[in-house]
Write a structure and sequence with these properties.
heterodimer; A: about 110 residues; mainly beta; 7-stranded mixed beta sheet; 4-stranded antiparallel beta sheet; about 50% strand; B: 6-stranded mixed beta sheet; 5-stranded antiparallel beta sheet; about 60% strand
């Protein structure tokens, strides 16, 4: 049973470019959450997708957008990249059952913006 | 002030020592996660708890909802326990708010 997978593992972009990160949830999970973790900090919640819709959103600008596909996989898109967007981007999946469920984290995508 | 505060931020100990990491939060929550993050970024969920105490092997997690405080204990610590330990609280059904993490180093 594959856990949460993310691609790519590492990425280097320049300011102003756009990036797309991908996440495949753990088998049987229907909810995907995205987090940004700056160096030395705890992760920050970006948004969460369920049934192909954004359910919750953290304090991130509209440059951060996402999508969930019918197979529950998800993409995180970041437009007009800034140096400050350099971080580890984590995806976590869970199964919505109306209450808190353990979230399973992927290995992350490390993004460097030059 | 962060909604979730952990202490200490860094902890170095000798193999075999009893380790305690603390987490305090200022918001109403329904449950709390303890997570372990190894170098390279992979995060593993250790515990999710909403009351009392949970134990798994050498790890023990406690939570006091009234005092808005949780602790993670490691007994008989080992160098392989070296990692960053993160406390995260559930706000709403599934949104996690994370602490900054505690970097633990266990020396042989």
């Amino acid at each position: 049973d594959a856990g949460v997978t993310q691609s790519p593992t590492h990425l280097i972009k320049t300011r102003g470019q756009q990036v797309t990160l991908r996440c495949s949830p753990k088998s049987g999970h229907d909810t995907v959450s995205w987090y940004q973790q700056a160096l030395g900090q705890g992760p920050q919640f970006i948004f969460q997708y369920y049934e192909e819709e954004e359910r919750q959103r953290g304090n991130f600008p509209d440059r951060f957008s996402g999508h969930q596909f019918p197979n529950y996989s998800s993409e995180l898109n970041v437009n007009a990249l800034l140096l400050g967007d350099s971080a580890l981007y984590l995806c976590a999946s869970s199964l919505v059952q109306g209450h808190q469920e353990t979230q399973y984290f992927g290995p992350g995508t490390r993004l460097l913006v030059l | 002030k962060n909604e979730v505060e952990q202490s200490p931020q860094n902890l170095t100990a000798q193999e075999g020592e009893f380790i305690t990491i603390n987490c305090s939060y200022s918001v109403g929550i329904s449950a709390l996660h303890w997570l372990q993050q190894h170098p390279g970024g992979g995060i593993v969920s250790l515990f999710m708890l909403s009351s009392g105490k949970k134990k798994h092997g050498r790890l023990i997690a406690t939570i006091n909802i009234q005092e808005k405080h949780s602790s993670l204990h490691i007994t008989a610590s080992h160098p392989r326990d070296s990692a960053v330990y993160i406390c995260a609280v559930f706000q709403g059904a599934q949104k996690l708010v994370f602490g900054q993490g505690t970097r633990l180093t266990i020396n042989p």
